[in-house]
Amino acid sequence: MPAVTFTTGGALNKSALREANERLVLNSIRQNPCASRSDLARITGLSRSSVTFIVNRLVRKKVVCEERMENHSQVGRRPTPLRLRADAMMAVGVEISLSGARVALADLTGNMVRQKMVAWHPNPDLFLEKIHEAIRGIIEPLSPKQILGVGVGLPGFLDRATGKVIAAENFDWFGVEAGNLLRKKLACPFYFENTARLSALAEMWFCDGNRKPLRDFVFVTMRGGLGTGVMINGQILRGASSGAAEFGHTTLYAHGRRCPCGNTGCWEQYASDLALRRRYAERCGEAVRDPAAAEPEAIVAMAREGDAIALRVLRETAHDAGMGFVNLIMALNPEAIIVGDYLAEGWDLVEDIVWAEVRKRVPAYYLTAVRILPSKHALDSSLLGAVALVFAQFFTSFDHGNGNLAASSVVMRHSA
Length: 416
Hints:
The chain is an alpha/beta fold. It has three domains: about 15-85, Orthogonal Bundle (Arc Repressor Mutant, subunit A), CATH 1.10.10; about 90-200 and about 380-405, Nucleotidyltransferase, domain 5, CATH 3.30.420.40; about 210-375, Nucleotidyltransferase, domain 5 (2-Layer Sandwich), CATH 3.30.420. Helix content is about 40%, strand content about 20%. It has helices at about 15-30, 35-45, 50-60, 125-140, 180-185, 195-205, 270, 275-285, 295-305, 310-330, 340-345, 345-360, 380-395, and strands at about 65, 80-85, 90-95, 100-105, 110-120, 145-155, 155-160, 165-170, 175, 190-195, 215-220, 225-230, 235, 335-340, 370-375, 400, 405. The strands form five sheets. It has a five-stranded mixed beta sheet, sandwiched between helices. The chain has a five-stranded mixed beta sheet with strand order 13-12-11-14-15, with helices on both faces. Strands 7-8-9 form a three-stranded antiparallel beta sheet. Helix 6 (about 195-205) crosses helix 13 (about 380-395) and helix 10 (about 310-330) crosses helix 12 (about 345-360). The two termini are about 15 Å apart. Mean pLDDT is about 85; it is low at about 1-10 and about 405-415.
């Protein structure tokens, strides 16, 4: 669906209003499975007749289905629950990391029904060509009308409109035309975003139904480096040239390790998966013969099984993560910091040391409303965020230029 348009006077024209209301109802059904028409009228603020008109249209389009209730003992007509037809539309999510790429096909509920893995290759052209083939292979069996689009999580500083990676130091990618290489000869729309921001989007989009969505929070990714996605009042913090919130390259130790970005002592050098691997290799020396043993997930697993070296390096790295969280809290005053990747996997082993460092450095009155939580999506956060980036075009009036959900919480009190 195209973006909502306005007349010159600023009012929604009739077709745009109808589309906006349809998106509002669709998103309300997504967020409230089994809601009835009367429930939707209450949730959206639309009249019951408008909701009925919109729902009937969505049923005819086979995007929404009705669940008829049989043999009920209740007197009178029971409200009919409504659900999305999960397989009516599909989205493709792509996650690109130093360990390779994942390409997933997801239904309208966010369930990943098919995945393909692409091994890492240091040549970006060859690597992206393989990812392109995986995307083409995963959508080939489907009707073009079923594919809403492809969301791609890219590393580093990028041009979101074209998918060009301007600089991703840990990948040694500079000026890589990733977007052009991925979408060639494919007719479906492509959307691009930094992986850390996608992780934050996933946390907000795929929120538990019984929990109020977070609006002011930071998501910290720790794979292939350290990235932060910042949400302010439900909107992605971008900055003047879409380069805001690069907290991974803020200085933790002024005379510390040299970072590929050119700075010294960057937080990324002490709290990322790269730091965890390096520490483990330094402690074990010649003993690390199997590269897989130094993978972050393997280190967490060994620490959980009682390996003293693995537990020690995990807690050392978590300590430095906690120091960086101090800067996030003092700079942004978030309601929560969500951690992903290895820190989420091993959170029960390191939560105490992270909080000890935070409490030592942040005034108690500043911490009353702050939570630090492991992502419920853990290693899938940025992949699900790539899927959410596509769904946002379908379910909401998504301003892709600014990367924000413009109508997910707006009530439009007009007729359909």
